[in-house]
Structure formats: structure tokens, C-alpha cells
Design a protein that fits this description.
The chain is of the alpha/beta class. The protein is 47% helix and 23% strand. Strands 3, 4, 5, 6, 7, 10, 11 and 12 form an 8-stranded mixed β-sheet that branches. Helix 1 (9-21) crosses helix 2, helix 1 (9-21) packs across helix 4 and helix 5 crosses helix 11. InterPro entries: LysR_HTH_N, LysR_subst-bd, WH-like_DNA-bd_sf, WH_DNA-bd_sf. This is LysR family transcriptional regulator. GO terms for molecular function: DNA binding; DNA-binding transcription factor activity.
Length: 307
């Protein structure tokens, strides 16, 4: 474009410094450049604009009327540059995108709503998608990159999966409200109740079976139910008892339809963990969601909702 004025930001910065210091000598010291080099830059700027920017005297340098106009515009330019840098870097560093989160039914019932609320508030550019499944299926989906973050029970340690423990839960004997007479039970005592349990290879069933076999205990299983919703419904209607974590029946306890007593001697524990693929663990969109999941679980335990 004919008559287009092209100026480097560095030259404008030199001009602003001389205007603020009202002295080429002081400006050169502040900029840490030689005074002759500074004078040449200002002279070139004046030649390009075809105006005088400073009135030089023994006392220093004062901006002319044209210099005052340029000074005001220079401040605006630098402010815009700073704002542009801020806006661009903030946008670049702000987590954004779609994150698929897999959770088992019961933890998901309590974690998902609180997680979504926090994500909307803090990271509005992240879109969460929830996938329900049991731990084995979720681990497979994680391996296949079908989900980015998974909440799982006791996943097996693997190099390709980064696992972080959220909390450790005790298994409890669960019955219809009013049917449990003790504050806690031994595994032998719990095993004598008519139990409604999932089939193998359900992980919880294997966990209970392993502890029973190690202690030479036989489980009194009267009904097999491979869905946690069905199991809780059968127990609620008095068809038997089951063994679950307290977290699995929070809603029913709050509704007053189920109760639980921890199993002692031996205690049966399992860990609730959050996991992601190791090769994805540095993605900010995933790590911030992992941290929010951790916050939610801490809140649930500290408020006594989860224990």
C-alpha cells in the first residue's frame, strides 16, 4: 500500500522511553543501549513520519505536539499488544475439548452430577460425556481410547495405565432396613445369611470368594443377580441380603430402605481409583478432570455421604 508506515515495536519503545525520561542520556541508560544508536533510531522515526517528535535543549528533550499524539497512540498500541498476548496465551492454556469419563453405576450416581457442576463452572470449554460400565469393561474402553478418564475398582497395575487411588472402601453386609441386629459382622456370620450375589467372574464376587476360601467359609448364596440395581431391589423387598460397599447403597440408606454393617474379621477392602492411559496423562483436559473427580470424592467422604 502506497504511503504505508511500517514501524518496529522496538522503535516505538525507544520513543516512549525518551518521552518519559525527557532525556536521551537517561533513556539510553534505561534501555541499556548506546546514546548515538538511540538518537539514530529516533531520527529515523522522525524522517519516516516527516515530523519533529522532540525539542532538544540543554535541559533534555520535550515532546512536540506531534510527539504527544504519537506517545498517546504508542501507549494504546502497547496496551493492545499486552492484551492480545494475554488473550491468546490464556486461550491456548485453557483446557478445551470433549472428555469421555467412564464410571461404574454407583460411584457415577454421586460423582457425575458434582463433577459436571464443577466442570461447567471452572472449565466451560470442556464438554463432558459420561459412559457407564463396570470396571473390567471400562478398563477395556480406556485401553482402546474410547474414554479418556475412568473411575474403577481395583484395576490391575499396568505400565500403559496410570492409576491413582481415590479411597478405600470396606465391604458390608446389606439388608432391608430393620433386618440387621449387629453394628458389624464377621465374614463367617455374614456368610450364613441368605445372600443375593453376582455370578463369577464379577470382581466383587471373586473378592468375597477369595476371602471366604482363605478362611474356610462357605457362602450361603440363594440367588444370583448380575445387576446391582436388581440386587438392591431384591434385598429391599426382603428376598435376602447382599455384600456391597456402603457407597453402593447411599441413596437407599438415605431413603431409609436399606442398611449396612461393615464386615470384620477379616475386613474386605477394595480401592476406588481414577485412571487414564499413561501416554495421555499429560493432556491438560484430562488432568483437570481427574483433579475435579478427586475433589468430588474428598467432599463426599468429608461430608459423611461416602464412607
Amino acid at each position: 500500500m502506497t504511503g504505508e508506515w511500517i514501524v518496529e515495536l522496538r522503535t516505538l519503545r525507544y520513543f516512549v522511553c525518551v518521552a518519559e525520561e525527557k532525556s536521551f542520556t537517561r533513556a539510553a541508560n534505561r534501555l541499556r543501549i548506546a546514546q548515538p544508536a538511540l538518537s539514530r533510531q529516533i531520527k529515523k522515526l522522525e524522517d519516516d513520519l516527516k515530523v519533529q517528535l522532540f525539542v532538544r535543549s540543554a535541559r533534555g528533550a520535550e515532546v512536540t505536539e506531534a510527539g504527544e499524539i504519537l506517545l498517546r497512540r504508542a501507549y494504546l498500541i502497547f496496551n493492545q499488544v499486552q492484551q492480545t498476548h494475554h488473550d491468546v496465551t490464556i486461550h491456548a492454556s485453557r483446557p478445551a475439548g470433549v472428555v469421555s469419563v467412564g464410571m461404574p453405576p454407583t460411584p457415577g450416581e454421586f460423582i457425575a452430577p458434582r463433577l459436571l457442576e464443577r466442570a461447567k463452572e471452572r472449565y466451560p470449554e470442556i464438554e463432558l460425556r459420561f459412559v457407564e460400565g463396570f470396571s473390567g469393561a471400562l478398563e477395556q474402553k480406556l485401553n482402546n481410547n474410547e474414554i479418556g478418564v475412568a473411575v474403577m475398582h481395583d484395576p490391575k497395575p499396568r505400565d500403559e495405565i496410570r492409576i491413582s487411588e481415590l479411597l478405600v472402601e470396606n465391604l458390608c453386609l446389606v439388608g432391608k432396613t430393620g433386618t440387621l441386629d449387629e453394628a458389624d459382622y464377621t465374614l463367617a456370620e455374614a456368610s450364613s445369611y441368605p445372600l443375593i450375589m453376582p455370578s463369577r467372574p464379577n470382581f466383587l464376587r471373586i473378592l468375597v470368594d477369595t476371602h471366604a476360601e482363605e478362611n474356610d467359609i462357605s457362602l450361603n448364596i440363594v440367588t444370583r443377580s448380575d445387576g446391582i440395581g436388581h440386587t438392591k431391589s431384591l434385598v429391599k423387598y426382603g428376598h435376602g441380603f447382599t455384600i456391597l460397599t456402603y457407597g453402593a447403597i447411599i441413596s437407599e440408606v438415605q431413603q431409609g430402605v436399606l442398611e449396612a454393617a461393615p464386615i470384620r474379621e477379616p475386613e474386605i477392602k477394595w480401592s476406588l481409583c481414577v485412571a487414564m492411559r499413561t501416554d495421555q496423562s499429560k493432556k491438560k483436559t484430562l488432568t483437570v478432570i481427574e483433579e475435579l473427580i478427586r475433589e468430588v470424592v474428598v467432599e463426599l467422604t468429608e461430608t459423611g455421604i461416602w464412607r
